[in-house]
Design brief:
The structure holds two protein chains of two kinds.
Chain A: E1 4-7, E2 10-13, E3 19-25, E4 32-38, E5 42-51, E6 54-57, E7 64-70, E8 73-78, E9 87-94, E10 101-103, E11 107-111
Parallel strand pairs in A: 2-11
Antiparallel strand pairs in A: 1-3, 3-8, 4-5, 4-9, 5-6, 7-8, 9-10, 9-11
Chain B: E1 3-5, E2 10-14, E3 19-21, E4 24-26, E5 32-38, E6 44-50, E7 56-58, E8 64-68, E9 73-78, E10 87-94, E11 102-103, E12 107-112
Parallel strand pairs in B: 2-12
Antiparallel strand pairs in B: 1-4, 3-9, 5-6, 5-10, 7-8, 8-9, 10-11, 10-12
Chain lengths: 112, 113
């Protein structure tokens, strides 16, 4: 157990509304990641963070922003949600001395 | 950029039969390779990983995988499948800093009684 929680676990929102998803970790990992999972695509990286206030874009970053003001929290924001952002969102951390990533339980987001 | 192909979208095997899930990767340098498993409604759990050394790696739940550089493959195997192995399996490839890990589209495993 990598001590990762995500909130909310489920959310339904309307097109055009802002949405923020939260990832919280308890083990002081430096690296944190946000992915989205869609059928036929596996997981795709949205953004990642390599420290407080240090973030970078991933493969599918358009329409998303992130913030990390504390080591333990990594926020993903959809400024104006669209139906194409309906997906399952996973947060992950990278182990301190290894290279594998460990995943949270996911957030299912539906944009109507 | 690295990429991963899992040629089989869905595989059905009988309980007790052997299993092999295929994974092919594209990466210019030495790849770091992973297999994850996802049960319905759950997050991803790491099954095993390959960084270097012995090309046959052992993982949890009785799974193993073999790295074949000449074939750019990292196939997952299990000698005898259990009903609880029914899940979706993802192969992934990363680099040294692993900040852009790429996943395959996944293979869904169904286990027949």
């Amino acid at each position: 157990d990598a001590g990762i929680t995500q909130s909310p676990r489920h959310k339904v929102t309307e097109t055009g509304t802002p949405v923020t998803l939260r990832c919280h970790q308890t083990e002081n990992h430096r690296y944190m990641y946000w992915y989205r999972q869609d059928p036929g695509h596996g997981l795709r990286l949205i953004h990642y963070s390599y420290g407080v206030k240090d973030t970078d874009k991933g493969e599918v970053s358009d329409g998303y922003s992130v913030s990390r003001s504390k080591t333990e929290d990594f926020l993903l924001t959809l400024e104006s949600a669209t139906s194409s952002q309906t997906s399952v969102y996973f947060c992950a951390i990278k182990g301190q001395a290894t290279y594998e990533q460990y995943f949270g339980p996911g957030t299912r987001l539906t944009v109507t | 950029a690295q990429s991963v192909t899992q040629p089989d979208i869905h595989i059905t095997v009988s309980e007790g039969a052997s299993l092999e899930l295929r994974c092919n990767y594209s990466y210019g340098a030495t790849p770091y390779l992973f297999w994850y498993v996802q049960s319905p409604g759950q997050g991803l759990q790491l099954l095993l990983k390959y960084f270097s050394g012995d090309t046959l790696v052992q993982g949890i739940k009785g799974f193993e995988a073999e790295f074949k550089r000449s074939q750019s493959s990292f196939n997952l195997r299990k000698p005898s499948v259990h009903w609880s192995d029914a899940a979706e399996y993802f192969c992934a490839v990363g680099s040294l800093n692993n900040n852009d890990m790429r996943f395959g589209a996944g293979t869904r495993l169904t286990v027949k009684p």
